[in-house]
Amino acid sequence: MSHRGRTLFDKIWDRHLVGHRADGRELIYIDRHVLHDLHAPHAFGKLAQAGRKVRRPDLTFSMQDHSVSVQPGRNDDTYAEGAAFIRAMRKGSAENGVRVFDLGDPDQGISHVVAPELGLVLPGATHAVPDSHACTVGGLGALAFGCGTTELEHILATQVITLFRPKRLRVNLLGQLGADVAGKDVALAVIAKLGVSGGRGFAIEFAGPVARALPIEGRLTLCNLTIEMGSRSGFIAPDAATFKWIKGRPFAPHGAQWDQAVAYWLTLFTDEDAVFDKEIDVDCSHLAPQITWGTEPSQVIGIDGRVPDPAQMDMDKRGAVERAIAYMGLEAGASIEGLPVNRVFIGSCTNSRLPDLELAARLVKGRKVAPGVTAWAVPGSSQVKRDAEALGLDRIFKDAGFMWGESGCSMCAGTNGDMGQAGERVLSTTNRNFENRQGRGVRTHLVGPALAAIAAVTGRITDVRKL
Amino acid sequence: MQPFTTLSGPAMPMIEDDINTDQIAPLQLAKGLSPDWGELLFKRQRMNADGSANDHVLNRLQYQKPAILLANENFGCGSSRESAVWCLTGVGIRCVIARTIADIFRENCLLNGLLPIELSGEAMGRLQALVTKIDGAQPFCVDLPEQIVCAPGGETFVFDISGSDKTRLIEGLDEIGLTMKHEAEITAWEAQMFADMPWVQESRDRRR
Ligand code: SF4
Fold it and tell me: What is the 3-state secondary structure (H, E, C) of chain A?
């Protein structure tokens, strides 16, 4: 066999290839499996019905994040509809010997925030969560798969997932980022270029100088939005910054094993002569802070941009754009800046890590939330919350008039009852601006923490660069 | 899993792009762990603000028992929630035909005996026109062994599906059972990984 360079994807995939099933699917071993309360109870139930056991409870972890209240002083019943999920999760985990990060646990939080933070997920490892944003941990160079409930049950019973090998796509992020843009803006710019299904069937490697220069939290944010490009898995090759970030975390290897691990991780890159099935370049120089204007994540413009005008578009695109403009209560061709905002949500597995909150707090400091605006800051994990409080960020937010929450998914998908009111314009640091996702008739604009914070205090969509 | 061979019934048109799983299964409206999935299907879109039924295609008389759903590009994108499939099967839909179908949703279909068909080009345009025209008045049929969709006038549309996915649906195979035939390989892999890189096979909290 002639030697041909391999992509990082192939290196990780091949290392985890357990075997080939007769039906042509490949069995890929899952190193770490993290469950959450919204979907795991169904899988635990089906597993029990079939009389099957969790094969590796020691590699499986349960997180309470989707249906938990984030109100200060919360308990199981604060959000009454969530209680059944929280209790079923606790019971299923206990019956199967799976460690649960429960309400009140110092490590509770959103699974995609907690898994990297604890060092549960490592470079070159495979990771599965019954959640499409499993891809977040690609920021550490891990290969993750979001999955459904039956796949979840399958992984619980076998510790492998069965897949056809995806194709490989490399997104080269070129240029250099300006001062007021970060991982979220890069991600939105890539979606604008690739479209919401451009990555379908591919695993995406984000490469190039901009990917390298992003801090680890920014890489996690970028990879979080991979599914919004249509791909199940997205990742960035690990490097010295990754290793430094992981070192000393509770579940990370240490001592002699640490050195051995780093030696392995240093082999995790795409060989120069490797060939991708598809490559695209995205020039990120001169990138303005990005904001979505429409009802899917590829409907993006710079903060200084204008809402598109359907009259100037091809007939086949018009309908969808007209509908999005109508739902969002916008005017075709008008600037996005200056629109009044009703609600601001800073949180979710996209943008709720410490640097996100620090950035937002810096902009909020000494100011007040504009009259009529409801503003929430919800840390991604209990650890992030403690770290933020140690820096006094909670005071800054609360003094300004923000609600400072306990950790959880909250208004990102509203599955804990946190939703906006019909017709409200919401600036949200989350990842989906679908119609009705944050409440019936809610108009969601996806932004990074800077634009969200500044909108909270000005009461309008505001270009942070003008302040 | 319920096997799939043939299917006959109304084909319901929702010829739009990017219909996402939040729309298909609006989980915020679900009550409890085991809601009536069929009742939840497209619930936000089926209701007016006051909760009354609107003119959504699913509210129309001829689509009270739909069998096939016909969409356009990128059906089932967004959240990985398998309940999107349960909502569809909850009203009897066992086949989705679209130009493209999102990756995770497609897997979820295959695991629940729902046949995902990708049909493109002019054939799809023709099928969409037929489904719109017939508007539930006569049944369409799907034959998986033959890999065809047939319209009431007798016109047929051939579709592609991988041999393994086809077998999986026709035989209604137990996925976990199939994989467990490889248990020895899984165990061997674990032992090898433990020898090579023990930290991958152990997940220890060093604070404890
Ligand atoms: S924060 Fe939102 S996107 Fe992330 S896991 Fe929770 S609900 Fe899903």
Answer: CCCCCCCHHHHHHHHCEEEECCCCCEEEECCEEEEECCCHHHHHHHHHHCCCCCCCHHHEEEECCCCCCCCCCCCCCCCHHHHHHHHHHHHHHHHHCCEEECCCCCCCECHHHHHHHCCCCCCCCEEEECCHHHHHHHHHCCEEEECCHHHHHHHHHHCEEEECCCEEEEEEEECCCCCCCCHHHHHHHHHHHHCCCCCCCEEEEEECHHHHHCCHHHHHHHHHHHHHHCCCEEECCCCHHHHHHHCCCCCCCCCHHHHHHHHHHCCCCCCCCCCCCEEEEEECCCCCCEEECCCCCCCEEECCCECCCHHHCCHHHHHHHHHHHHHHCCCCCCECCCCECCEEEECCCCCCCHHHHHHHHHHHCCCCCCCCCEEEECCCEHHHHHHHHHCCHHHHHHHHCCEECCCCCHHHCCCCCCCCCCCCEEEECCCCCCCCCCCCCCEEEECCHHHHHHHHHHCECCCHHHC
